[in-house]
Amino acid sequence: MANSSERPGPLAGVKVLDMSRILAGPSSTQLLGDYGADVVKIERPGAGDDTRKWGPPYVKDADGNDTFESAYYLSANRNKRSVAVDIATAEGAALIKALAAKADVLVENYKLGGLKKYGLDYEAIKAVNPKIIYCSITGFGQTGPNAHLPGYDLMAQGYGGIMSLTGAPDGPPMKVGVGIADVMCGMYAATAVLAALRHRDVTGEGQYIDVALVDSQIAWLINEGTNYLQSGEVPERRGNGHPNIVPYQVFAAKDGHVIVAVGNDSQFGRLCEILGVPEMAENVDFATNIKRIENRELLLPKLEALFATRGKQEMLAAMKANNVPCGEVNDLSEVFASPQVAAREMVVEMDHPHSPVKLIGNPVKFSATPVTYRHAPPLCGADTDEVLKDWLGEG
Predict the structure, then answer these.
(1) Residue 68's pLDDT band (cuts 50, 70, 90)
(2) Secondary structure letter of residue 206 according to DSSP
(3) Which of 72, 206, 273, 363 shows its CA 20 to 30 Å from the CA of 319?
């Protein structure tokens, strides 16, 4: 089972009131929980986070039956305790304010102005806790002509441009296979909260954080986005290819696929030697990366034909032996069976009220304050009494 190290995490003592649901907010607060924060998840009584029902697959009970507690929900809600509160009632809103008065951080992802009608917006919470760090996650942010629109990962991937870059050159725009706009927004939110905590440590001042799915997605266009800003040229989809390096993509061997990531001209020369065409590296059309980019449509079919005659393991072994960057294309069964994954403890098993569950581990390895796995993703409202006693002294 997962560890519960006696050493406190780097955020031990930090109280986080999590009023988010779905993925962006919960992934952010799960990260804070992994780092030791006490995260309290606020949920609708009897319903909870929408993702609890986003299956199959679901957690099984002791008899092997589905519990309708989905794997999707498990993915972003460990190291939290759940409190069931109906914020639409005066009593529920008052309870949230009481909890917020004790919190260091509040994270929410209601639509624009969604919490104001309950008296739970930043100004109202700041009035009871001036030092709180209040982080709002929305689709388009708190300002701009689209601020009122709802936010969904697929919409953010489309609006923010990543779908125009993803997929085969002759195929349709393609989203990334997981909700990466949500996840990256959650990551930006978590780092913003950490920065705000540092600022508060120095000044005693809390603050409001406005994070948007679309802004975050645009931010991680990275080189392709900056390429466009510098050149004014709209990039095209290249499948697994790279805009600035050739060859840097997946090739089909005769019995599988291999990744080739040639980063310089000497590596290209060694690849040509392995493929039995050393003269290709001397060809003026291919000798430098600049020329390979210019002539990619001429070069790539030649490389594809050569790879198609070789075995996958043969090519991987030869490239690794000759320091040509390369790798496998694993499916998830191969990923999670990998000895590297085991060595890095990227799968953790935790006790759950229904049955043990396997989760993806946190990738950060602290030397002094290791990540701990203290709470399995909670059942809706399971910790209400405990949290009210811990935070408010009730009961």
Answers:
(1) confident
(2) -
(3) 363
DSSP letter for each residue of 155-184: HHHHHTTHHHHSS-TTS-----SS-HHHHH
The CB-based long-range contact list for 251-255 (8 Å cut-off, 24+ gap) reads: 251/303, 251/304, 251/307, 252/304, 252/307, 252/308, 253/307, 253/308, 253/310, 253/311, 253/312, 253/314, 253/315, 254/308, 254/309, 254/310, 254/311, 254/312, 255/311, 255/312
> Is residue 366 over pLDDT 90?
yes
From the candidates 182, 201, 210, 390, give the one annotated as an active-site residue: 182
Question: What does the alpha-carbon distance between residue 256 and residue 251 come to, in Å, rounded to a whole number?
Answer: 9
Residue with tokens 């986080």: 16
Which has the closest alpha carbon to 307: 291, 292, 290, 324?
A: 324
Q: Which 8-state DSSP code applies to residue 79? A: S
99-118 pLDDT per residue, tens = 999 999 999 999 999 999 99
Q: How confident is the model at residue 37 (pLDDT cuts 50, 70, 90)?
A: very high
Q: What is the mean pLDDT of the chain?
A: 96
Contact predicate 88/382, CB 8 Å: no
Dihedral angle sign, alpha carbons of residues 278, 280, 283, 289: negative
Contact partners, residue 394, CB within 8 Å, separation at least 6: 388
- Cα 119 to Cα 125: distance, rounded to the nearest angstrom: 8
Q: Distance (Å, rounded) from C-alpha 253 to C-alpha 275?
A: 12
Nearest Cα residue to 360 out of 66, 162, 132, 77: 77
Please give the domain boundaries of the chain with CATH numbers for all domains.
15-220+336-392 (3.40.50.10540), 263-324 (3.30.1540.10)
* DSSP classification of residue 253: E
- 182 as an active site residue: the answer is yes
End-to-end CA distance of the chain: 31
Average pLDDT over residues 235-258: 95
Q: Is the dihedral of CA 161, 166, 172, 175 positive or negative?
A: negative
